[in-house]
Design goal:
Bound molecules: 1,6-di-O-phosphono-alpha-D-fructofuranose
Radius of gyration: 19 Å
Order of helices and strands: HHHEEEEHEEEEEHEHEHEEH
CATH architecture of the largest domain: 2-Layer Sandwich
CATH topology of the largest domain: Fructose-1,6-Bisphosphatase, Chain A, domain 1
Helix content: 25-40%
CATH class of the largest domain: Alpha Beta
Length: about 300
């Protein structure tokens, strides 16, 4: 048997089996699985785009849609025929799109390809998904039932939570998502921080907080990709990602519905915290699709610390 194939009879747990063992309800299991499969198609699109960058003719020759728009098309089409999604909201769509009969159980929010401006640099990028039972214009605490992100890096990994812990999977050579680590738990504090935005645009309280982290010996880790930067805090089991209020944009840059709610759901399920500096991200009411919010997300000691500075 090839290396790793034989393990299927032993201790390799694939995504579907893990969700069944974790007690995730059947329609949600199937929906999460279908979205994870889209990660393979999006990854193929990224490689196709990079073929062009590598000076190779792209395989179809057609006018390439921008990667984030083509990723959005792939995702929307897959969800349209999933049987579980009545509405789809995406960073790439002007409004929420009705894609089912109206009787399906879930609403899916997506940032189909976050960090797409990094593709040409070959840095890691990602897909961010939120799964809601009720209308999305409420707090995440009231509407969210699951969240996941897919990281397109040296490996393709998928992290999900359906309210029963946060778990990481790796896409293996056979095209299966196999469990890498389950019930990831952040330590009380970490040793890395990701400071978004320009230093000279930070509000004074935020600058003082970052200077304290630097004084305390925290190491700066920032790629400019929200998904890999968050993933680093999760997999290192501690640290802090922030994209703060800026002088010119007091709501910061990142989108509450598409980017911050899913990551807050996942991080809280791993024992972390997520705030805008005063209020938990999942307690913020979503008023509009393009609503932005400052974000401090990661291990609890650093999140509690920033609240002292922003009081
Ligand atoms: P793009 O999707 O335009 O590449 O932006 C990525 C992003 O939305 C998020 O992934 C990063 O955390 C953030 O922007 C980086 O913003 P700065 O370039 O201002 O640091």
């Amino acid at each position: 048997m090839g290396e790793g194939i034989g393990d299927y009879t032993k201790n390799v747990i694939d995504l579907r089996r893990h969700m069944w063992m974790a007690g995730v309800e059947v329609e949600l299991r199937r929906l999460i699985w279908q979205i994870a499969v889209v990660g393979k198609y999006i990854s193929a699109k990224i490689h196709e785009a990079n073929r062009k960058l590598a000076g190779l003719k792209n395989i179809y020759g057609e006018e390439q849609l921008s990667l984030d728009r083509s990723s959005d098309e792939i995702l929307k089409n897959q969800l349209q025929f999933s049987g579980f999604v009545r509405e789809y909201a995406s960073e790439e769509q002007e409004a929420i799109v009705k894609i089912g009969t109206g009787r399906e159980k879930y609403i899916v929010t997506a940032d189909p390809l976050d960090g797409s401006s990094l593709v040409e640099t070959n840095l890691a990028i990602g897909t961010i998904i939120g799964i809601h039972k009720e209308a999305v214009f409420d707090t995440g605490k009231n509407t969210m039932v699951a969240a996941l992100y897919i990281t397109y890096g040296p490996l393709i990994t998928m992290v999900y939570s359906a309210g029963c812990g946060t778990h990481e999977f790796v896409l293996n050579r056979e095209g299966e998502y196999v469990l890498a680590q389950e019930n990831i738990r952040l330590k009380e504090n970490g040793s890395i921080f990701s400071p978004g935005g320009l230093r000279n645009e930070w509000i004074p309280e935020h600058l003082r907080f970052i200077e304290q982290l630097e004084k305390d010996g925290y190491k700066l880790r920032y790629s400019g990709g929200f998904v890999p930067d968050i993933n680093q805090v999760l997999i290192k089991k501690g640290g802090l990602f922030t994209y703060p209020a800026l002088r010119k944009s007091p709501q910061g840059k990142l989108r509450l519905l598409f980017e911050l709610q899913p990551m807050a759901f996942i991080m809280e399920q791993a024992g972390g915290q997520a705030t805008d500096g005063r209020t938990d991200i999942l307690s913020l009411k979503v008023e509009s699709l393009d609503q932005r919010s400052p974000i401090y997300i990661g291990s609890s000691a650093e999140v509690q610390m920033v609240k002292q500075f922003l009081k």
